Amino acid sequence: MKVLANDGISKSGIVALEKGGFEVITTKVAQEQVANFVNENNVDVVLVRSATKVRKDIIDACPGLKIIGRGGVGMDNIDVDYAKSKGIHVINTPASSSESVAELVFAHLFSGVRFLHDSNRTMPLEGDSNFDGLKKAYANGVELRGKTLGIVGIGRIGQATAKMALGLGMKVIAADSFIPQVGVKVEFFDGQSITTTIVSQSVESLFKEADFITLHVPAQDGYIIGEKELATMKDGVGIVNCARGGVIDEVALVKALDSGKVLFAGLDVFESEPKPEMAILMHSKISLTPHIGAATGEAQDRIGTELASQIISLLN
Asked: What is this structure's pTM?
């Protein structure tokens, strides 16, 4: 059987699939050619990340397709229900990238509170001629320890983020419509651990209480954070989105950054991805990454081997 890993797969995933008797194809096929390639090469399994979309047209055009796999959590680039109605298995790897995304959240938080995103732009330009001026400009840093982190969506990634926040000495609050409370276990290098219970509260109260807010939600029909929500937040709040583009109203966010209502934002995902708006890209108060939440070697190894395990169990 053949597997097309159109957006790539780790070496460990390839090895596991080949041991299971599968041929793995890593040729990058253009979106408009995916259906033809699948049919011409008798591909049984298509694996994607966020780049390739598997919509109704591809599903209808590929009657021999048995599995569609998403290396990661969200599956908004796959017509999941329609695929299942056609008897196609749809799989993903919800647990594999949690720690990687959570660490990126804190990369953005640390960058924001110490102005690293902006100082790394200006130091090469002015570091030799305006060192004292830059030192003064970036002198009002903020510590994360002792502050309140509001997590919207306390699923696997939200919980991984909570563990890091607790380890740093932050207070953690959460809002989740589907998880009323969760036990979060923080494990240490020597085998010791502590467990604390986080009880969900309303998102409205979270916005009012949190010093920093991070979003961990699937794609939405509307904004979770818009002009009205921003108005209820603390002055000087920091906001991070490493979840999905389109859950924050970027026009309202830029206004809030310009007014000082929001101290900084950290964005890994964007409303108009893969072509973010220039007002976002050029803003001095936004820390930017190009949708790389799961892009660590460790996460990709876990994703590859987990996908391989699911495929082998389903088809062998």
From this structure: 0.89
